Amino acid sequence: MKHRISALFIIFTLVATLMAAAKGPVKISGLVTDENNEPLEFVSVKLQGKAIGTTTGLDGRYSFTAPEADTIRVLFTCIGYEEAKRRLIDASGEVTVNVKMTPATYALGGVEVTEYRKQLGTMQSIDKADFKLAPDVSGGSVESLLTTMAGVNSTNEMSSQYSVRGGSYDENSVYINGIEVYRPQLISSGQQEGLSIVNPDMVGAIGFSTGGFSAQYGDKMSSALDITYREPEAFEGSLSASLQGVSAAVGTNSKHFSQLHGIRYKQNSSLLGSLDEKGDYDPKFFDYQTSMVYTVNPKFKVSVLGNVAVNNYRFIPHNRTTKFGTSTDAKEFTVYFDGQEKDRFETYFGAGTITYKPNKGNEFSLLASGYFTNELVAYDISGEYWLDQAGTGSGAEGGAVGGELGVGRYHEHARNRFKASVFSLGLRGATGLNKHNLSYGLTYNHEDIYARSREWELRDSAGYSLPFDPDAVNVIYSLAAANDMSSSRFSLYAMDTYRLDAPAGYFNFNGGVRMSYWSYNREFLFSPRISVGFVPAGKPQLSLRFATGLYYQAPFYRELCQRIATVGNELTEVLNKDIKSQRSLQFILGADYTFRAMDRPFKLTAETYYKNLANLIPYEIDNLKLVYSGQNLANGYALGLDMKLFGQFVPGTDSWISFSLMKTQETLNGVKVPRPTDQRYSFALFFTDYFPKFPRLKFTLRGIFSDGLPVTAPNSTRDKGYFRAPAYKRLDVGFAYALLNAPKEGETRSGIARTLKSVWLGLDVFNLLDISNVSSYYWVSDVNNLYYAVPNYLTRRQINVRLSVEF
Prior knowledge:
There is one protein chain. Helices cover 5% and strands 60% of the residues. It is mainly β. The protein has a 22-stranded antiparallel β-barrel. It has a 5-stranded mixed sheet with strand order 9-14-15-12-13, with no helix packed on it. Strands 1, 4, 7 and 8 form a 4-stranded mixed sheet that branches. Residues 1-23, 105-115 and 393-402 have low confidence and may be disordered.
């Protein structure tokens, strides 16, 4: 028996040895991408604890051979990204391991960046860490960071709306986790707006394109903002409090389920108190968002995204004193008010995604989302005003003097209600074939809109109502609307990304087409788009790109509204069923050049563009309110140059300078006029620094200097006359002191510090130079039909204190 057992043991050992010999080495290969699914070059891929490995090429692919083992641990590392690990159990033969890298969230104190990654497409990646401690009136929003980018403009620090390369605020699409989101429709000023739809505490990755974007992004003409909320790796959270409001976020992650919740509350009455219009400001803005992911198994994943936003704005005005003009012709405008404004904006949004990945080369997603908005703008305000030469008039208390230019009364009334619901159902897929990455999708949208408006203004000048009629009392402005709309939209897209490593250099091709149909006006759109990126073989520090495409701006609601004059000054707003989508034929040529100076990395970016615009729906801007003509009345163009110098002027911190030149023009009623967003020049600066003797103290500066926009009189158009507002100039500075820094690798803490990641105490100075920027104008007219444009100034210098905690 003993000899039989020994023989069996010998046979078993021989068989095991032969099987192990038959296995041989394991060939490991795959693709490494970033958060936007773009290939990531120069990623180190190696066996953990061994010197065996390789790096990814320009196409993001890698391949190497590892000795056979029961468990193979592969380590992926790249500067600026979180470390990724993969464990292979009983691997044999050829194994494919694809990895998506996550941008690093730890402090950059001891990290040295050697080179910035190359941009071969039109979508640029933005580091979410840049806006965390930046001084910002809106509380660290993504949009405020975008306005410092080349080609992006905003002239209202209280708003999250922005213009890109001459486009309107409505021409920018925003996606969160692949779902398109919408903005309120009745917003007319930054005071009402409240919180951005994007919660900065939940952001994991940011992709932004100022034009020439691929076919997967919808029917908007100017830009695409692609936000991805992060998935927590473990229990984590953050808390931030300031004089403007509070925010908190908390997330957890188990084996199959991750969740992230964010809540924000904003009450910026102290900031609004710096406006010329004095009174009782009572804004209350609330927002809750959640992102949850349940991984059923390696092939199935279910994701949920939710948002509830309730924004209330109440204002009881008391008085206003505005001084304006020049040193030789100074004027003073004084008003005493009666009445109030009460606005309410409610938004409810929910989305669900089921993702199925049958194999490494295919992925399919089923998406469903619902959006509902309920908006009410109601005000009834009267005022008595005096317009004097500054220093000569005494207003209500002293009576009329020689310097009096005008005296009168006005009464403004509005009851506007807007309700909209949008239901979407979509199917998307992605297929990898050799060096081709195919993406495709089909979406169905159904929209229901209910809109009611009643606005009027009564104006009295020197005892006469305007417009003057000896036999009647007239209002100077009156608008009524009662519109209902129900429609459906169908869209589909298909595109291919192909990468070629040729002797001349590395090429990245992206081509696709987007088609859509809208039942309301029975319009079918065909939108081809293509882009090419190239890195010369002899000059890897240089990258070139070109993009072109036919883009459309599909109307939603405001673009449809056409004002028809009835009796006197009475206007009725109706929907134009014959409206067509605005069209933009775009050509974009860009280049990036990376270099080192002062032993630090820098990147210089330049893009020139030309957009041929047709079927334009002209509009005028009043503060943030866009008043459309409701008809396709104009053609035009936009051309410009955007430049940006990006680098680490100070080690461990990112800074940039951007400069833009632009001209955009349209032909309106036979007259060539600048478009309402014709901002001819713009200069922006974002700079961060750590004080040498105080490494815990961080300094951030954000500055904007941009051209003023064209302005028209009320109920008029630019072809009848316009002037330009003064240039927008603003400088915000922030100081942040690390009471507790992010832990270094291998560092251990005790007590409550073990549960905290970082604690920052900050001091911000908004509008450091106390410049009076103009948001819009209030027009005063007299019985002789003379108009005076009284500027409505934005916020003045303000101090803000904030505390930020991460755990």
